[in-house]
Design goal:
- The protein is α/β, with parallel strands linked by helices.
- Helix content is 40%, strand content 21%.
- The protein contains 18 helices and 18 strands.
- Strand 13 and strand 14 form a beta hairpin.
- Helix 2 packs parallel to helix 3, helix 2 crosses helix 10 and helix 7 runs parallel beside helix 9.
- The two termini are 22 Å apart.
- 40% of the residues are buried.
- The model has no long low-confidence stretch (mean pLDDT 93).
- The chain binds iron/sulfur cluster.
- Iron/sulfur cluster (SF4) binds next to loops.
Amino acid sequence: MNPYQQYMYSYPHKTAYRPLSGVSLKEYAPLLAGKGHGLYLHIPFCQEKCGYCNLFSVTGQGEESIRRYLDAVERQCAQYEKLLSPYAAEFSELTIGGGTPLLLGEGQMERVFDCLKKYFCLEKGREIVIETAPNQTNRKKLEILVREGVTRVSMGIQSFSDQELSVLGRRHGAKQAREALGLIKTYGFPCVNVDFIYGVPGQTVTSLLASLKEALTFAPDEIFLYPLYVKHGVRMERARVVPDAEAAYLQYREASGFLRGEGFRQDSMRRFVRRGGKREFSECGLGTSLALGCGGRSYVGKLHFCSPYAITGKECLKRLEEYEKTVDFTDVRHGILLSEEEIQRRYLIRHLLIYPGVDIQKYESCFGSGLMEDFPVLQDWMEEGWVRWNDSQEKKVQEKGRGKFLALTQTGLGLSDFLGPRLISPGIQKAMEEWEEMYGRSHGTL
Ligand code: SF4
């Protein structure tokens, strides 16, 4: 069994989205009334495309292209403000991701924050999250982040081995990562998170643990461990790199055990949170989130939308040009309208794969039916030892007035990328396969 089938970051996957017509965000704007929504801004610029990257990002863009992009973002913000003003929308979390947000110059970063503050209302006590990168982190930029009240800084380190970083096609070296992380830690952000990758050709359990041990000397609040995927269209695929799933799984088991032993709570297959830290688990199954810029996804009720999925630099540039020419940002041209059944699946997937699991009572009150009846496969998984009813570990959650939870076991957690894809509906699976076939044909990769 290959445990690494697919990362169920969200459901449905963007490759199941299709062109839409006659759909306006105006109809869905009432769902953004009041508090508790997410706001996401995508900065799609990178210094160089990493070997494994299938995120929406372009390279080689100068100041002028970034200015054009930010002009379009500002127009989008102004239109969304007008749309949301009758509903008093307030956002509890603002995330600036990419790409490499800190590739922006200091003036551009200030422009971004000013723009977001001008057009949107952030709740008191809101989270502001930003992704940073070793090569782009400096004092001036970090001072802006402190001034703007950023609460969580995340950095993609991936490894402290130069050899592994070179295999991954990362532009930074271990030295830059050390210096950047050391600098970030001096600013006292409430949460500092670092990302690492395992399953890298040439990587061993020993070298992975060496990276993690070094990371711990910086006392991060959270660590994310990502298995290496080589997906269609990425540079490593062209170099015919095929990750060794067995080696990756062994590394995962050792590394996850190591982090738990070091006092981290494992919230999902990827996420490890320092025990005693402030981070709570997040409700993410039915939440609303509005994306700004090109490449980010919006989730508003049953409407999920974004620009068409693109991987290569050429495709991403084309989408970027289309985005910058957009006249009406409330006209939704690409996405999916979820059926009630798909919403239930999304709820299950988003909760089961993340601590503390699915709240059975909440599920029943949302959907008017029983989880185990709706998804009989869960009973089989229980017999396999992959899921379980909650135990004393979730006592704290229960004390907050919550009910009974269905959660992954330790083995189940490690198999998240094998189990999650089994919850995809046949209709979504078909749409994803159609996309793979078309994409493979157009790129000659399948
Ligand atoms: S992995 Fe991150 S830094 Fe690398 S190209 Fe992709 S978005 Fe840019």
